[in-house]
Amino acid sequence: MPLYAYRCGADGPVDVMRPMGAAPAVVPCPTCGADAAKMITAPRLALADRGKVAAIDRAEASRTEPAVVSAPPPRPVGPSRPLDPRTAALPRP
Predict the structure, then answer these.
(1) What is the average per-residue pLDDT within 10-20?
(2) Of 16, 36, 72, 92, which residue is 20 to 30 A from 83 by alpha carbon distance?
(3) What pLDDT shows up at residue 61?
(4) Is the pLDDT of residue 4 over 80?
(5) Residues 77-82: what's their mean pLDDT?
(6) 75: helix, coil or strand?
(7) CA quadruple 75, 76, 81, 82: dihedral sign
(8) How far apart are the C-alpha atoms of 66 and 58, rounded to whole Å?
(9) What tens digit of pLDDT does each residue of 26-51 get?
(10) Taking the CA of residue 15 as centre, how many other CA atoms within 13 Å lie in the half-sphere pointing to its CB?
(11) 37: Cβ–Cβ under 8 A, 6 or more apart, which residues?
């Protein structure tokens, strides 16, 4: 179950666990009973799989700091598959 963050005007932050999508906009504060409004917070990605977090970080970095290459990748040595005799006379890249 996700953890939703609320803020009470008198007591500060309140965390509430609710089923996904079932969190109301306002909950009563457990300390004073006043209304606590739901806050928008960053997702807690530290609990996610390390491989997925690394992929997200690489995608974010490539948006603003793309990798710079100095040469195209090397071509494979030799034909990777036998040439079709019907297309053997066509120019190759």
Answers:
(1) 88
(2) 72
(3) 84
(4) yes
(5) 68
(6) coil
(7) positive
(8) 10
(9) 999 988 989 999 988 877 766 778 88
(10) 4
(11) 6, 7, 25, 26
Residue listed under structure tokens 């079709």 = 84
How far, in Å, CA of 66 to CA of 43, rounded? 25
* Length of the chain counted residue by residue: 93
Distance (Å, whole) CA 2 – CA 13: 16
pTM (predicted TM-score): 0.46
Higher per-residue confidence, 4 vs 82: 4
> In which element (H, E) is residue 16 found?
strand 12-17
**How far apart are alpha carbons 61 and 20 in whole angstroms?**
30
Write down the pLDDT at residue 37. 92
* Vertex 51 angle, CA 47 and 57, to 5°: 85
Tokens of 46: 């530290």
